């Protein structure tokens, strides 16, 4: 019986289609910080892509960046607007800090350029709405950078939920985080990041479970956030502690359409190894997903499916799918799927219409925490 349960979740053989290299898509990179490194390394492996331009606000940073990665011929610009004006681009990767995600993405879409936007989508739900308006007006492709969706173990979560084995989903516990893992740079200031652990790793945790249940609309949220560790030189570099003004821990109780409850918590630092595994509970079964530090790759270990079978309470371990590191792994697949969608005229691998709800929850947690009570999540109309 266990084999029969697991058999329906077996991943298909992973074969990559032959790539047409007769026309190379011209890419630009907006922002040349550390996340741009993964974009460039993956794009360099795509035979139907050419990186032709880059932009960064720090003088000389872009040229140094592209030279480091063997691309000294890439034209560099002092900001994204100058690059968009001067170049005929097919697509851009927006790799800037959170506060400029909306501006850079909207400007690129308004120029008729396809966009791969790094996570989080932006900072506020209002920004997300404006991004989607620009997307709809442009008719171009916008995909959000959630590479964990390309992982076979992450896909397994959705397969289990969509199979009906769990029955009607009514409660989800999710989160994760690091006992000590506070970043630095632009991540820790409100003026650049807008949100802290919520936007950096919390969005991944939410996407993992919301994608599995087809992203129902969020209705209300009671949120909490704090920064006891980031602001304390005992736990953070004193210089960084002095400028730290975002969240390093957040928690929330979220109500979704369909009567589903999400119990969420995420941390950059805490006095425990994990705030708990992810649990998806249904009327016919439940799924336990071992926690990780940030959910930006794969799951934390073999998952367990809890069922009643023939009157017996059973636990079925779902073996981990082997990690596929060919061609750069899931980050490569993120870029490959984006390029394929542009060339084939298909839907975005991670559509903005879904991540709008992700962003609305993050924004709702911040607002609820500041107000000190539960709030209704209001998403403006998109025309």
From TrEMBL:
InterPro entries per record: Gfo/Idh/MocA-like_OxRdtase_N, Gfo/Idh/MocA_oxidrdct_glycsds, GFO_IDH_MocA-like_dom, NAD(P)-bd_dom_sf
One protein family per Pfam: GFO_IDH_MocA
Keyword field contains Oxidoreductase: yes
Domain GFO/IDH/MocA-like oxidoreductase: 156-288
Keyword Oxidoreductase recorded: yes
Domain Gfo/Idh/MocA-like oxidoreductase N-terminal: 25-146
Annotated transmembrane regions: none
UniProt-recorded Gene Ontology molecular function terms: nucleotide binding; oxidoreductase activity
UniProt-listed SUPFAM superfamilies: Glyceraldehyde-3-phosphate dehydrogenase-like, C-terminal domain (SSF55347), NAD(P)-binding Rossmann-fold domains (SSF51735)
Keywords of this entry: Oxidoreductase
Protein name (Swiss-Prot/TrEMBL): Predicted dehydrogenase
Species name: Anaerocolumna jejuensis DSM 15929
């Amino acid at each position: 019986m266990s084999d029969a349960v697991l058999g329906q979740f077996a991943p298909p053989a992973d074969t990559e289609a032959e790539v047409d290299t007769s026309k190379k898509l011209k890419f630009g990179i907006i922002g040349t910080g550390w996340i741009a490194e993964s974009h460039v390394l993956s794009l360099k492996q795509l035979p139907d892509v050419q990186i032709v331009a880059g932009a960064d606000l720090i003088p000389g940073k872009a040229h140094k960046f592209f030279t480091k990665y063997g691309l000294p011929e890439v034209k560099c610009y002092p900001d994204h607007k100058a690059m968009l004006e001067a170049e005929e681009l097919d697509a851009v990767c927006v790799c800037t800090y959170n506060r400029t995600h909306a501006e850079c993405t909207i400007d690129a879409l308004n120029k008729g350029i396809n966009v791969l936007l790094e996570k989080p989508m932006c900072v506020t739900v209002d920004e997300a709405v404006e991004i989607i308006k620009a997307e709809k007006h442009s008719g171009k492709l916008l995909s959000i950078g959630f590479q964990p969706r390309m992982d076979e173990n992450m896909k397994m979560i959705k397969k289990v939920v969509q199979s009906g084995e769990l029955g009607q989903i009514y409660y989800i516990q999710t989160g994760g985080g690091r006992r000590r893992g506070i970043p630095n740079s632009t991540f820790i200031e409100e003026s650049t990041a807008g949100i802290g652990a919520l936007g950096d790793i919390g969005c991944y945790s939410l996407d993992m479970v919301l994608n599995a249940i087809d992203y129902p609309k969020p209705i209300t949220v009671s949120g909490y956030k704090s920064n006891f560790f980031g602001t304390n030189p005992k736990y953070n570099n004193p210089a960084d502690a002095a400028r730290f003004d975002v969240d390093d821990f957040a928690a929330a109780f979220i109500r979704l359409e369909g009567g589903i409850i999400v119990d969420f918590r995420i941390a950059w630092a805490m006095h425990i190894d994990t705030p708990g595994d992810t649990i998806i509970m249904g009327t016919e079964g439940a799924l336990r997903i071992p926690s990780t530090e940030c959910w930006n790759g794969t799951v934390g270990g073999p998952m367990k499916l809890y069922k009643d079978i023939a009157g017996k309470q059973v636990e079925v371990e779902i073996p981990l799918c082997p990690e596929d590191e060919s061609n750069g792994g899931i980050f490569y697949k993120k870029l490959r799927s984006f390029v394929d969608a542009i060339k084939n005229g298909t839907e975005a691998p991670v559509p903005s219409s879904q991540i709008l709800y992700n962003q609305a929850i993050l924004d709702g947690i911040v607002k609820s925490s500041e107000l000190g009570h539960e709030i209704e999540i209001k998403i403006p109309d998109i025309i």
